[in-house]
Amino acid sequence: MRHLALVLSLSVGLSASADADFKPSQRQQVELGKRAAADFRKHEKILPKTDIRVTTLKRVARRLLDTFSDGDKPWEYSFDVVESKEVNAFALPGGPVFFYTGLLEKMKSEDELAAVLAHELVHVRKEHWAYAYRDSMNRSLVLNILLMVGKANDNAANLAGIANELIFELPFSRKHEIEADNLGFDMMTAAGYNPSGMVKVFQTLKGEAKGGGPEWASTHPDDGRRIKNIEARVAKGGKYPALIPMELPKADPKTKKGD
Asked: Is residue 83 situated within a structural domain?
């Protein structure tokens, strides 16, 4: 990432017409996500498919995805649970989703799980990673030179060479995070979940941040207005179903990242 940071520090703007050249297609996003997910699984302790934490994650995810008329298309979703104390969850481009037991243990309801899942699924469906990649490339001096000599399309065609570090570490913009909050709210309520679960999980993560901050929350803008915005929407929505209690087994206390 050091070399990427150096390149981006020399950034210049490109014309809007270059956007289509640098934004990965949906098919490219799927392939990149699948490759990165396969590599990630090799280095982390992934719970077996029969584990109740995995089946619960998949059941809630399916309930959320069923709110869309197009189902999974064109994305190829997968849902894995990582046994680790890290308080984290993330979605890769194209559909792979990873949830850490450290975050699951903080949740007292399936509605909280649905809130984080819906937020991450919006990132996939709205192609936030692809737009973040496009924007970073548009700021790159090196790619600006390539564009001027007519090689931008070659760069887009060679996306298979993107390093995993860029796939995992490219941050979303504040605009993307707010969109994921709002559309995630719509998704979970359409699926019949109580959106106060979103308030509760963000409040929990905000409290965790006081001690250094969970990794999931550290990548999301949180100046208090996010929670207030969600609380305002909950208040306007009227009556919602009761929260669904969630009791899941705790992670092995001896588990360490990479075990």
From this structure: yes
pLDDT digit string, tens, across residues 83-112:
999 999 999 999 999 999 999 999 999 999
**Domain encompassing residue 174:** 22-236
Residues 6 or more apart whose Cβ sits within 8 Å of residue 209 = 217, 218, 222
In a domain, 121, yes or no: yes
Q: How many residues does the chain have?
A: 259
Do the domain assignments include residue 6? no
Strands 96-100 and 78-82, bridge-based pairing: parallel
Q: What are phi and psi of 89, to 5 degrees?
A: -160, 145
Which residues lie across from 90 on neighbouring strands? 98
Catalytic (active site) residue 231: no
Domain count, the chain: 1
Catalytic annotation, pick one of 112, 120, 177, 208: 120
Look at residue 2 and tell me if it is in a domain.
no
pTM above 0.70, yes or no: yes
Amino acid occupying residue 99: F
| Strands lying side by side in the sheet with 78-82 | 78-82, 96-100, 89-91
